[in-house]
Amino acid sequence: MSGRVLVGVKRVIDYAVKIRVKPDNSGVVTDGVKHSMNPFCEIAVEEAVKLKEKKLIKEVVAVSCGPQQSQETIRTALAMGADRGIHVEVSGKDYETLGPLQVSKILAALAKKEDAQLIILGKQAIDDDCNQTGQMTAALLDWPQGTFASEVSMDGAQVKVVREIDGGLETIKINTPAVLTADLRLNTPRYATLPNIMKAKKKKIANVKPADLGVDLTSRLEVLRVDEPPQRQAGMKVETVEDLVEKLRDTGMV
Amino acid sequence: MFFVMTPSRRLLSLRRSLVHCRGVSVENTGRKAAVDRVLSAFRSICGEDGVSLGEAIREQHGKDESVHRCRPPDVVVFPHCVEEVSALAKICHDNNLPIIPFGTGTGLEGGVGAVKGGVCFSLRNMEQILDLHPEDFDVTVEPGVTRKALNSHLRDTGLWFPVDPGADASLCGMAATSASGTNAVRYGTMRENVMNLEVVLSDGTVIHTAGKGRRPRKTSAGYNLTNLFVGSEGTLGIITKTTLRLYGIPEAMVSAVCSFPSVQAAVDSTVQILQAGIPIARIEFLDDVMIDACNKFSSLSYPVAPTLFLEFHGSERSLEEQVTMAEEITQSNEGSDFQWARDTETRNRLWKARHDAWYAAQALRPGSKAYSTDVCVPLSRLPQIIVETKKDLLESRLTGPIAGHVGDGNFHCLMVVDPDDLDEQHRVHLFAERLARRALALDGTCTGEHGVGLGKRALLCEEVGPLAIQVMQGLKDSLDPKNLMNPGKILLNGGF
């Protein structure tokens, strides 16, 4: 086993930012808005680094698909303890339409190229909430998948994953190579500290184009329109219970 | 409070209070008319939804987290930028309306109460983080930015702003009250960490205390205006920007807990740890009453004895050194049950008692209100004052578990009071005054971190003396001749 883990890290609008829709309703405003690593990707990086610290795997490679700025996200992963990075350059129109299917094709190609033993991703991104990339990547590679992981442990050539599911927790054991997606309670990601940020500057980030990996970025989806949720209307006060029942009937709620 | 109400005195004071009432109500009518006059001007500056007369909104903005009752303003305005603040202030100035700046309302000394009514400037819409310079370790923020919001924004830069008063307070508000926190022993308080301020004065003038945009790490240029406004609690100007000193996020942290047979032993350990040059990040003291409350509240089983909670920051190697030395020191002071933890989850569990202290204290008597005292004395005087205070608590039949930042000589008695028992509240009030005077007698201060606000104005006079008060009053008169900036706070002026 190569002992190599690929971790996908996505650059998204920071969770604390108030999102605004563009005036032409074609998307959300991203210019000049703070971006950072998707929180679930942070958890994925942390898990990979923890596995390396326990000497269960040998190398953590952080991967991001996007424009030039995605390199900042990779640098953050390097500061958290990843060993090297791969920046898959996607910009302009291709980047606007980049979605889980294309990313999973890219990750699948990289996994083969890098002889990865594990791919760890966040369960979903906070901008699109798709929750598809991990599952699609596993399907393309025909690898087992441990999604919504809240606990991961290595057991020889197998991985034991405790998954968070609707009814509670499910424990599965899967063979490697495998794809895992990180859920919220998997771990608490470490902060990037100054000395580690300095060390990260010396780590390598390789540049790759999707075409080099034989991946076609054409999207099958077209975004027609983006709207804000409807503004909350003011409530109204009524004098009596009878009035209340009447109003509820009028608005068809009862 | 202590003289006898004879019939003639009663008549006199009744007459005086009638006149006062009439005077106040004339004042009230005059002020209400002024407010009505300026409302449309306010709206043209802040927009329709930037001005609120609603009762609920005004009440929200008339109290903080202290025991002082709500004193709502006449109107609340929500400016979006310093230009709006300045324009609003000018109108208030021209119409003699009091101005009360409001950040997050998390203060503990009644600083936001509009004792003379007026206009509350709620600054929460000014929430930009401007000018971050990671290479220079500084950042400038507006009043709507809270401490946690800033640290979340900074997390990928490897930097943080360590001053941690507990609440998620506005950073400009923290500057206004000269806030401190549990790690002041290592990182300092707001006084040491504010580099520059943008302030709007009572007449609308906008100044930069260290010069616009300036952020050298040190300066000898002119009077230290920055630190004049730090701690001024809104009585000299409205802080609309603060430039803060940032620090590197610690590489690693270790937390530890240790019990002691006596308060003296715990404090001696603190002093020795500091004297050994250990760069301890947090050193918190909980007395036996507090630990007992925490055990009950959080289902823990710490020995019921004076306890120290310690936190160390540094590289892996330096942590080992620090913890080993600290453990030796505690052992030499008969400390026992020294436990320590490195990973986040266990550290949080160890410190849970300290984190829940406020709630644990209140849970001792369900339905009670809590009030925190805040004295600070030189380290060497700490054992004496704590021992005397615990004796006073017993004699006064009061519940007051103690939690303190012993590294700074600062401790809080979390007084737990029945809100319907006026006699008990009176005893708490007297106890707090005795405690403050005890601290003053030991070369300390009546307020280490919370500020003077409404309740400690008389104590401030005792603390700094009449001559220094005169200088403070002179500064106040010079910057705010009409006494419009947060009247009734810090200084006993305006006949209030």
From TrEMBL, chain A:
One of its GO terms (molecular function) is electron transfer activity. It holds the Pfam family ETF. GO terms for cellular component: electron transfer flavoprotein complex; mitochondrial matrix. Keywords: Electron transport, Mitochondrion, Transport. Residues 25-217 form the Electron transfer flavoprotein alpha/beta-subunit N-terminal domain. GO terms for biological process: amino acid catabolic process; fatty acid beta-oxidation using acyl-CoA dehydrogenase. Its main location: mitochondrion. It is found in: Mitochondrion matrix. Gene3D superfamilies: HUPs (3.40.50.620). InterPro entries: ET-Flavoprotein_bsu_CS, ETF_a/b_N, ETF_b, ETF_beta_N, Rossmann-like_a/b/a_fold. It comes from the Eukaryota. The electron transfer flavoprotein serves as a specific electron acceptor for several dehydrogenases, including five acyl-CoA dehydrogenases, glutaryl-CoA and sarcosine dehydrogenase. It transfers the electrons to the main mitochondrial respiratory chain via ETF-ubiquinone oxidoreductase (ETF dehydrogenase). Belongs to the ETF beta-subunit/FixA family. Heterodimer composed of ETFA and ETFB. Identified in a complex that contains ETFA, ETFB and ETFRF1. Interacts with ACADM. This is Electron transfer flavoprotein subunit beta.
UniProtKB/TrEMBL annotation, chain B:
Keywords: FAD, Flavoprotein, Mitochondrion, Oxidoreductase, Transit peptide. InterPro entries: FAD-bd_oxidored_4_C, FAD-bd_PCMH, FAD-bd_PCMH-like_sf, FAD-bd_PCMH_sub2, FAD-linked_Oxase-like_C, Oxid_FAD_bind_N, Vanillyl_alc_oxidase_C-sub2. Residues 68-249 form the FAD-binding PCMH-type domain. GO terms for molecular function: D-lactate dehydrogenase (cytochrome) activity; D-lactate dehydrogenase (NAD+) activity; FAD binding. GO terms for biological process: lactate catabolic process. It is an enzyme of class 1 (oxidoreductase). Its EC number is 1.1.2.4. It is found in: Mitochondrion. Belongs to the FAD-binding oxidoreductase/transferase type 4 family. This is Probable D-lactate dehydrogenase, mitochondrial. It comes from Fundulus heteroclitus.
